[in-house]
Amino acid sequence: MKKWGILTVCLLLTGSLLAGCGDKNSDKTSGSDNGGSKTEAKTIVLGTSADFPPYEFHKMIGGKDQIVGFDIEIAKQIAADMGANLEVKDMDFKALLSELSSGRVDFVISGMTPDENRKKAVDFSNNYYKAEQAVVIREKDKDKYSTMKSLEGVSFGIQTGSIQEDIAKTIPNAKITGLSKINDIIMQLNSGRVDASIMEKPVAEAFLKNVKGLAIADAVPDYKEDGYAIGVKKGNTELVDHINKTLDRLNSEKKIEQFVSEASDLAAQK
Ligand code: ARG
Asked: Quick one: signal sequence residues (predicted)?
């Protein structure tokens, strides 16, 4: 359901990480007014595209649809270190950077690669994780698509606004269908409307655990990926500094590895 998308709208002060958004009951996110409460709890708003297990994804837990994943765990730690509440806004991946620039979200954690184009528009934290790219195909095409050459002219389902779009464009004559959500790409692949996709390997592996008939191709895209980083509005050095401190702490406590393995287990559960 879209409930995360229609959460309390907080008017965030430009450049300020801790906009006063009124208080929230920590276990209740249904507020539709914007204030009137007594306490001064601060809220920071995370933008993410929760279609990306094990990074961020929807899961029914205790009968409730929740957004979980290791990016979300990192976001919780950032908020906790700042003494702030965390509000999660789920949206299409392609909307994330403009939501950040307009101040509707304070930070973005969404398995985002800090590539040169994005660095022009927003600022990034240090990298917190790294993963390779993978080509996903139907299992029965495994022999057919074993090299990048064999993927020339093939139809690809690709997440709009992702770096995978750039990678797909380097494949000669690739026919690219842009889709907002990875779940839709998986469905289109399964039903034969597209023949291949490119996504991060951990994401491909997470989907493949629950979807029959798909496989990771032996072909590996050539992309020198720089890992993942957390985006903030351009110039918000205060928030980047906070975030980097939390990342340093999590790294020294080996927490990121732990979050990744817990999220992978959760993603694999039916
Ligand atoms: N790493 C890729 C990029 O930055 C894909 C990220 C997609 N993230 C997501 N939550 N769907 O473009």
From this structure: 1-19
Query: Looking at residue 163, which CATH number applies to its domain?
Result: 3.40.190.10
3-state class (DSSP) for residue 16: coil
Within this chain, do residues 45 and 159 fall inside the same structural domain, yes or no? Answer: no
41 C-alpha vs ligand 1 centroid, how far in Å?
Answer: 31
Range of the domain at 240: 19-129+227-268
Rounded Cα gap, residues 88 and 76, in angstroms: 10
Alpha carbon separation from 5 to 40, 76, 87, 140, 146 (Å, rounded): 23, 18, 10, 38, 40
The verdict on the CB of residue 163 being under 6 Å from ligand 1 is yes
Same domain for 95 and 120: yes
Nearest-CA residue for ligand 1 atom 12 is: 162
Reported as a single tens digit per residue, the pLDDT across 96-106 is 999 999 999 99
Q: Is the CB of 129 under 6 A from ligand 1?
A: no
Q: From CA 258, how far away is CA 268, in angstroms rounded?
A: 16
Q: What pTM value is reported for the model?
A: 0.85
Residue 260 belongs to a domain: yes
Same domain, 44 and 167: no
Render pLDDT for 125-160 as a digit per residue (tens, 0 to 9): 999 999 999 999 999 999 999 999 999 999 999 999
Query: Does the beta carbon of 110 lie inside 6 Å of ligand 1?
Result: yes
Give the pLDDT confidence of 17-72 residue by residue, as tens digits: 333 333 333 333 333 344 444 567 799 999 999 999 999 999 999 999 999 999 99
If phi > 0 it is left, if psi is from -120 to 50 it is alpha, else beta; for residue 57 that is: beta
